[in-house]
């Protein structure tokens, strides 16, 4: 059972997200918060597997809460909930080690994929969020060319691992898909991070989207 804390200042949004993530079983919402400070307190109390954080909340927003949580509670995966036009706000969370970005208005399946991926050590980018971030932060054709060149430097197996990683699969799932040992996949992921010069799975996934080797989720 995945234990989840959900933080959004709008009760109706929390209710909708809770209904989606618990509908198929396997997820237990152990706490709900209306701002980032409450979310941090709930994580300290319950030590959940995942916390879903709205980007914009009063008093302490999701970005500030994410930084605190990644510093003080690294065992809890952080996934950001964002609106379609909020990419400028979430970009600063990329290097904090968050496990994904999900669109509030996205398909219900994306919420489930994001929560499950984060809970099992993976990362998930809503395809529309990934596209917005790529467009905003590479901005020009040269940025896409640089990403393609970086991916081209990988071995064939590393590229396979990167593609599946960017689709939100965990190391175990990648291992099953490719017929490899999980320890081998971990080695490949570490090599991908090193060769691409990225600090975490979300940055690697974003670069994969930028290079055009990922078409969407699972």
UniProtKB/TrEMBL annotation:
CDD domains: LuxR_C_like, REC_NarL-like. It holds the Pfam family Response_reg. Residues 147-212 form the HTH luxR-type domain. The modification 4-aspartylphosphate is found at residue 54. The keyword Transcription applies. This is LuxR family two component transcriptional regulator. One of its GO terms (molecular function) is DNA binding. InterPro entries: CheY-like_superfamily (IPR011006), NreC/VraR/RcsB-like_REC (IPR058245), Sig_transdc_resp-reg_C-effctor (IPR016032), Sig_transdc_resp-reg_receiver (IPR001789), Tscrpt_reg_LuxR_C (IPR000792), WalR-like (IPR039420). It comes from the Bacteria. Residues 3-119 form the Response regulatory domain. Keywords: DNA-binding, Phosphoprotein, Transcription, Transcription regulation. Gene3D superfamilies: 3.40.50.2300. GO terms for biological process: phosphorelay signal transduction system; regulation of DNA-templated transcription.
């Amino acid at each position: 059972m995945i234990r989840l804390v959900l933080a959004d200042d709008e009760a109706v949004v929390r209710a909708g997200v809770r209904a989606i993530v618990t509908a198929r079983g396997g997820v237990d919402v152990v706490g709900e918060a209306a701002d980032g400070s409450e979310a941090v307190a709930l994580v300290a109390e319950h030590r959940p597997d995942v916390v879903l954080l709205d980007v914009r909340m009063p008093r302490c927003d999701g970005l500030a809460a994410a930084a605190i949580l990644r510093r003080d509670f690294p065992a809890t995966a952080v996934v950001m909930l964002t609106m379609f036009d909020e990419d400028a706000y979430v970009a600063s969370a990329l290097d904090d080690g968050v496990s994904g970005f999900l669109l509030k208005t996205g398909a219900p399946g994306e919420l489930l994929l994001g929560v499950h991926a984060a809970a099992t050590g993976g990362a998930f980018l809503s395809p529309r969020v990934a596209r917005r971030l790529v467009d905003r932060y590479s901005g020009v054709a040269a940025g896409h060319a640089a990403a393609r060149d970086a991916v081209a430097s990988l071995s064939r197996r590393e590229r396979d691992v990167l593609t599946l990683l960017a689709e939100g699969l965990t190391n175990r799932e990648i291992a099953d898909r490719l017929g490899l040992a999980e320890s081998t996949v971990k080695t490949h992921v570490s090599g991908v991070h090193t060769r691409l010069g990225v600090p975490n799975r979300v940055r690697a996934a974003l670069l994969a989207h930028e290079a055009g080797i990922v078409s969407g989720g699972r």
